[in-house]
Fold each of these.
Amino acid sequence: MSTSDTAALLRLVQWLSPAFPTGAFAYSHGLEQAVAAGEVGSAEALACWLGDILAHGAGWNDAVLLACGLRGEDLSELNDLARALAGSAERLRETEEQGAAFARAQAEMTGAEPTPRALPLALADAARDLSLPPDQIIAVFLHSFAANLVSAGVRFIPLGQSAGQRVLAGLHARIAEIAARAAAAGRADLASSAFRAEIGAMAHEVLDVRIFKT
């Protein structure tokens, strides 16, 4: 890897790190509801839940939207599609609020005018000029998504830090495989069958006591 490629990778890692001010720590993607309902209560259950979200839920759709954006498709059209694909009010809030925060942070770094978009498309806009393979960008994005939800699980289930890291490490091969497929996918490949997670996200809207926004 050349020095310029390494610098590009470091920029991407910075954007998708917990230190970047998107407020990702405040969102659980419905995991809080799944834990409260007794559906996720162990490291094994968390790994299964996350794997399904990545392969069959919002993880897959966000990866495909990111791929479409990286290859130069119209970001406004893709943003409308991302909004339509959000399965609940909280899902929409999650992607829009994080995307807007990402765009603001980017604008403060570059001096450009921020354009709020759903998170994968805000990233696509910033990452189009990076000298990195699309599957690598998508993999780091999915890893960041999974890492944030593992952190939520560690705090709320609760799990030990080591158990959480084992869950995340166990998802690496699956993330790489999903990223490779998504990099070659298009709009016709968008699909979601994580119905239980979507129903959980809707139920979270009326959860009596909540730690997370979603």
Note: The mean pLDDT is 94.
Amino acid sequence: MSYTLDLSGRVALITGASSGLGTQFARTLAQAGAAVVLGGRRIERLKDLRSEIEAAGGDAHVVSLDVTQLDSIRSAVAHAETEVGPIDILINNSGVSTTERLVDVSEDSYDHVFDTNTRGAFFMAQEVAKRMLARAKGAAPGVYAGGRIINIASAAGLRTLPQIGVYCMSKATVIHMTKVMAAEWGRFGITTNAICPGYIDTEINHHHWETEGGMKLIKMLPRQRVGQPKDLDALMVMLCSAQSDFINGAIIAADDGMVAS
């Protein structure tokens, strides 16, 4: 007997889909049957990803999105719903980081991290949730009443890490934000959960793991390895599926035991 999680008929909007985990999330949800809306600023990369997904038999669409701009958020969500249909799933993935000690953090650097990781994630979820709530209350059309919001936080939001203090602070806020959203929106069939990845090998940090500092860090990890984007696939699909209906407000570390150690 086999067990299948099928997202056919669902529309998923992924922010920060042009690279890293966002790209992998888009591929995975499309493979699971969802129509995926690829949001980000690097439009040409999003178009390439759309072509790749379509070539594999999936359904993908592109929207221009800058989560630091409220007008861009509203426009992207409206465009997605007009072109594809009501958004059932939001993957709140856009994120940035800086490497610096707290005494060296400038106002611009602080705002850069919080505007994307925290403010952007909040208003992105708010805009999608408004539409999910309207459908749940019968005030807007849509076959599926309810929804799934998955905020991509970080293991750095669960424990402090040196030289990325502002990033840790921003992701800790996302974790608490997730719990508040779950409490307010859960009774309308909208579940909000957070995934807290540990160290994942992506194009942004791939070179680092071959440096002296990167290899030293790997040796300090519980199983002396970093994860791959595909290691989050099963968790992501499960949280997006109907079978996860009883999971709301969960903060799930996917870090190979880093936080527990």
Note: The chain is about 40% helix and 15% strand.
